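> example.struct
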């Protein structure tokens, strides 16, 4: 039964991209508030197994899914990202409307720069510093900065939040 500290008790969540970065942090957080997890990854079985081990109490079959946390879209040029953001904004609204009557909500969490392998890949020290300088909080985000919101959206308390793109970026624009 769901309680204050375990609001996702007996809920099953699929987390894609759960072997590293933001997805891994989300998986660990959802498990810590009671969810049972189905973990997805691309190729890094070793890391995925480590995540599975740290959240696993026992293996069981998931006959139903309550929560889907899906990784976003690949990084690309800034203009392309703007186009994608507009498309995601529309998609989330349409999805929320399409789900009318089901009791299922659809939202998108949009992080700013988060210090993960993907963020650092191909960026020079100067590029990283620029991202830090542009953020009002003068730091990069950490995966753990994103997870409380995702955790909240997965609980019943978020029911009235629907069809939204929510930015979690420390004020970075
Ligand atoms: N970090 C940022 O600054 C930032 C900002 C905004 C949005 N995002 C978005 O957030 C998501 C996660 O980013 P991250 O920084 O946490 O990256 P990350 O640390 O590199 O982790 C990426 C995860 O996605 C998995 N993955 C890669 N390709 C996949 C595929 N085709 N199907 C399923 N899983 C796949 C990887 O699995 P393997 O380990 O098996 O390869 C890994 O678990 C990405 O969509 C990214 O674009 C990131």
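> example.seq
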């Amino acid at each position: 039964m769901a309680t204050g500290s375990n609001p996702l008790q007996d809920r099953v969540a699929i987390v894609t991209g759960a072997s590293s970065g933001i997805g891994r942090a989300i998986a660990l957080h959802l498990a810590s508030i009671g969810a049972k997890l189905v973990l997805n990854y691309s190729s890094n079985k070793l890391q995925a197994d480590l995540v599975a081990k740290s959240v696993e109490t026992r293996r069981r079959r998931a006959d139903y899914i309550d929560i889907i946390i899906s990784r976003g879209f690949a990084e690309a040029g800034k203009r392309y990202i703007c186009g994608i953001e507009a498309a995601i904004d529309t998609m989330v609204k349409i999805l929320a409307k399409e789900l009318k009557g089901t009791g299922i909500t659809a939202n998108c969490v949009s992080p700013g720069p988060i210090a993960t392998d993907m963020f650092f890949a191909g960026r020079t020290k100067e590029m990283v510093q620029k991202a830090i300088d542009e953020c009002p909080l003068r730091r990069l985000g950490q995966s753990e900065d994103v997870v409380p919101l995702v955790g909240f959206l997965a609980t019943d308390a978020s029911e009235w939040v629907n069809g939204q793109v929510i930015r979690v970026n420390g004020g970075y624009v």
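> remarks
Residues 78-98 form the longest helix (21 residues).
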